[in-house]
Write a structure and sequence with these properties.
By secondary structure, the chain is an alpha/beta fold. The chain has a single domain, classed as Purple Acid Phosphatase, chain A, domain 2 (4-Layer Sandwich), CATH 3.60.21.10. The protein has 6 helices and 17 strands. The strands form 5 sheets. The protein has a 6-stranded mixed β-sheet with strand order 4-5-7-9-11-10. Strands 3-2-1-14-15 form a 5-stranded mixed β-sheet, with helices on one face. The protein has a two-stranded parallel sheet with strand order 6-8. It is globular and about 65 Å long. It starts with a strand and ends with a strand. The mean pLDDT is 96.
């Protein structure tokens, strides 16, 4: 029996009628992403959104986000990023008990064969992330209780350098090496999934694979010059689907957001179409 979890990230939803960075309406991109999830041949068991749900963490933005996510039929698990405001998020999603009543938003949830662990990396009022000793201790305890199941660890800031200078400068400033050492003690952690980067990036980390996911809307420009300008573009948006298979383990696929021509057959009458 397989378990599948769709990852969305970096939605940056604004109030209706407001544009991100003065020029981008992110809402249609999220609508398209939700439609993409709804048309998957196999419905996912859950959706996890790895932070930057809104652009400024305002109540009106979360209200808009709630409307945009409403068509999803499966459970939706939320995690904050550096653009989010936890208390405003809780107020907008009162039925989401996993958000807690106060403090960091972190939780562990069994979803089918997988244990989803959400770890808060945000620093209030800052763009960079941090894993303090208290957060790492919490994670160590949760990992001990999850030794019997494959784990998907979700966090906003990636715990690795990406070589995109302006993004690395607002990456995870504290706790990365400690996290890596901790994960090496838990080989059942199948994947570390992150947001923040607005790009697909994969790195070996802590004896597993750590990866970031594109945004449904705008992407960070890929420029590996250390002092490259902080800039975004409209490369096609994407989501990821992480599928646990009892024989193969965790397999991750990236799916472009949108509607495309097809599907078309490769074969006709048992023969490859010439």
């Amino acid at each position: 029996m397989r378990t599948s979890i769709v990852q969305l990230t970096d939605l940056h939803i604004r109030e209706p009628g407001r544009l991100a960075y003065g020029r981008l309406d992110t809402a249609p991109y999220l609508r398209e992403a939700v439609a993409t999830v709804q048309t998957l041949p196999q419905a996912p068991d859950a959706v996890v959104i790895t932070g930057d749900l809104t652009d400024f963490g305002r109540p009106a933005e979360y209200a808009h986000l709630r409307e945009l996510l409403a068509p999803l039929a499966c459970p939706v698990w939320l995690l904050t990023g550096n653009h989010d405001e936890p208390d405003a998020l809780r107020a907008a999603f009162p039925s989401h008990a996993h958000l807690g009543a106060s403090g960091d938003i972190r939780y562990a949830q069994r979803i089918g064969h997988l244990t989803l662990i959400a770890l808060d990396t945000t620093v209030r009022g800052q763009s960079h992330g941090s894993l303090c000793a208290e957060r790492l201790d919490w994670l160590a305890q949760v990992l001990e209780t999850a030794r019997d199941a494959p784990v998907l660890l979700a966090m906003h800031h990636p715990p690795f350098r990406t070589l995109i200078g302006h993004m690395d400068r607002i990456g995870l400033h504290e706790g990365g090496s400690e996290l890596e050492a901790l994960l090496r003690c838990h080989p059942n952690v199948e994947r570390v999934i992150c947001g923040h980067m607005h790009r697909p990036i994969d790195v070996r980390f802590g004896g597993t694979i750590a990866s970031s996911c594109p945004s449904p809307a705008h992407q960070v420009v890929l420029d590996l010059q250390e002092q490259a300008a902080s800039a975004w573009n409209l490369e096609p948006g994407a989501i990821k689907i992480h599928v646990w298979d009892p024989l193969e383990g965790l397999i991750s696929h990236q799916i472009a957001v949108g509607r495309f021509a097809g599907p078309f057959p490769f074969y006709e009458g048992g023969e490859l179409i010439d």
